[in-house]
Structure formats: structure tokens, C-alpha cells
User: Fold this.
Amino acid sequence: MAPGDHGRERRGYHHGNLRAALLEAARALIAEKGPMGFTIAEAARLAGVSPSAPYRHFRDRDALIVDVAREGFTRFAEALEAAWEAPSLGPLKALDRVGSAYLAFARDEPAYFSAMFESGVPVGADPELKRAADRAFHVLVRACEALRPLAPEGRRPPALMMATHIWALSHGVASLFGRGDGGRRSSPLSAEEVLESAVGIYLQGLGIIPA
Amino acid sequence: MAPGDHGRERRGYHHGNLRAALLEAARALIAEKGPMGFTIAEAARLAGVSPSAPYRHFRDRDALIVDVAREGFTRFAEALEAAWEAPSLGPLKALDRVGSAYLAFARDEPAYFSAMFESGVPVGADPELKRAADRAFHVLVRACEALRPLAPEGRRPPALMMATHIWALSHGVASLFGRGDGGRRSSPLSAEEVLESAVGIYLQGLGIIPA
Assistant:
């Protein structure tokens, strides 16, 4: 595109920058108003572009949220993978690290966390979003595949089911006790302590660690 | 107040009705835009009253959200109590019923659920809100007090800790797999099955049910 046409906005965004600027504006608006609480026009205003500019990249507001959520799940997956792939820790310690990484992400990235889990946008709505979310979940599946052989035979639920349980537990602890807003609920235990003790009892239930 | 003064609005709300109408408008706006996504003026407009009318009952938007959350926690506590108090079921079956009631509430009352858990308003911000939330949590504490003696001595964590674990698990399952928006995440198991199987393994870990 030639300079001066619709490829440039008053702040001089070129194609890639405009997209990034809109995603950044959306994250700021999610932090302030929640993932359902703003229009695509507000995101354009905050990014300093015309109201029609977002439509070069995003069909509508939900498409913008989907991209924030996808970016969030990609970073989340990277954080969980880095926690899991600590060499030579053994699966129990590595699982602890994955749990801590889950909580740290919820605490440090409240806007991504909202877009990923509280936006009302179904993960199945977009194949790339689904792929990013599956990549994050897959870290837990791998962890459970490594833990499963430690359970006595006949007490080994499918790794997918174990991963679903541990995901739900991590997610509940993060949502209730470990949010970026400084703890909306008080507990005598830290979020890390709640999660670690609960996972410990769960793994006892499978015979993976002794009671 | 005499008719015609500020005690009446153009739809003729008297004091109590105005408050109820604003709470209803807030719930509708939460369902549409999330608990952080609207102004008190929008709630007034939806209720058909002047922009200043809400200030007779609510200091600001957050105070309105606090009241929706408090009302939500009161109904939630009633639902959990009704599930727990089924006579003569025994604590294990009664706990299952409490878990199902948790999931049913999240599914049937998405606006309350958002106001209670995703609004960013700290539960400690208001004594009545805290009381209502504590009342709901207390159902789980009572359930765990009843279950605890079934564990072998020396394997009995405090009931408060058990209740925190089971709450986090229920909340995680409800948030991830059991929302009113028709399941934003797919799982081969229903939310009820995920929760029941996870709680079962947890209770095995405490020796409350046999492995």
C-alpha cells in the first residue's frame, strides 16, 4: 500500500503494528472493564486509530478477544512447559512447579486470564485458540502420563482424567485465592499452599505418594 | 415521603421497588457485559429511572455489584444448605449433592456467579457480603466436619482445609466445564462426573473411602 492510504493511520501504524496496538488496547480495556465490557470502537480510540481501522484485522469485538485469549494461552503454555521441563527433578517436583506456574500466571496476567477463562468466548470458536488452549492442557497430560506408572496397577485412571482433575483444582485455587487483584478472598494458607496440599491428598488417593 | 417528591420516579417506583429494579437491571447488564462492563447510569437507564436515582441506594457502581453479589451468595448458601440437609443420606451422598448444587448454581445463575467471583470486588469490602459468602462456605465446612471422623486418626486435616480444597475443586470444575454459556470447554465427561471422580480420589487420599 502507498503511504497515505488506508494502510496507515494517524499514528502511522503499519499493518502489523496496528494489530499489536489493538491487542494491547484490548488487554488494557479487559483489565479495566472485563472482557465483555467494551466495544471495538473503544479499543480503536485507545489505540489512537479510526473506528473503522480494527475491521482490517478483526471481524468484531469477539474476534479481538479471541486473539487476546489465543496470545494468552500461548504464553500460558510456554510458562507451563518451562516449569515442567526442568531437567532431572522427577515428576512430583516438576508437577509442583507446573502448579506454581499456573498460579503465577493468574496472578501476573489478570487480563489474559480473564480473556482466556471469563470472556464467554467458547474455546472451540476458533481453531488456533483451541490449539493454544490444548497445548497448555497437554503439559498437564504429559505430567500425568509420567505420574501414572507410580500408581499401583488397577488404580490408574486415564492420564486425561487425572489432568482434568488437576487442572480444575489449579484453576479453582487460582480463581478463588490467587488473582492479580490482591486476593479477593482471605485464607490462612497461601494459594500455593492450598494447591500443594490438595494435590498431595489427591496423589495419595491414587497411591502415587504414601498416605 | 409525599407522592411526587424524589421518592418516586417516572415509573412510580417507591423506595423498595427502586432498589429491586436496579438490582435486576444490574443482573441483566452483568449477563450482557460482565460485572466490570457497565456504569451505574446504564443501570439507571435500563431500570427506567433518572441517572441520579441510584445514588439514593448505592454510593457507586461497585456498591451495586456488592449488593448483587451478596444476594447471589445468599441464594447460593440456601441452595447448598438445602442440598446438605437432606435427611439420613449420610455425609458422602450429601456431599455429592452439595457438589451438584454448586455446579447447578454456576450453570443456572451466570450473572450472580460472575458478580460473586469475577467482579474484582473483594469479599471483605462489605461485612454483609462477607457474611453471605461465609455462610455458603460454612456448608462445606460442616460437610467436612461430618466426614473427618471417617478418616483414620493421624490422617485428618482440619475441616477448614478440607473445605477449602473441595471448594477450590468445585469452583474449578464449575468455571471450566459447567458454565451457563453452554460449555466453553469440551470434555468427554460432564462437569458432574469430573467433580465426583476428583472428590472420590481426594477422599481416598484421606482414607475416608477405600481405594
Notes: The mean pLDDT of chain A is 89.
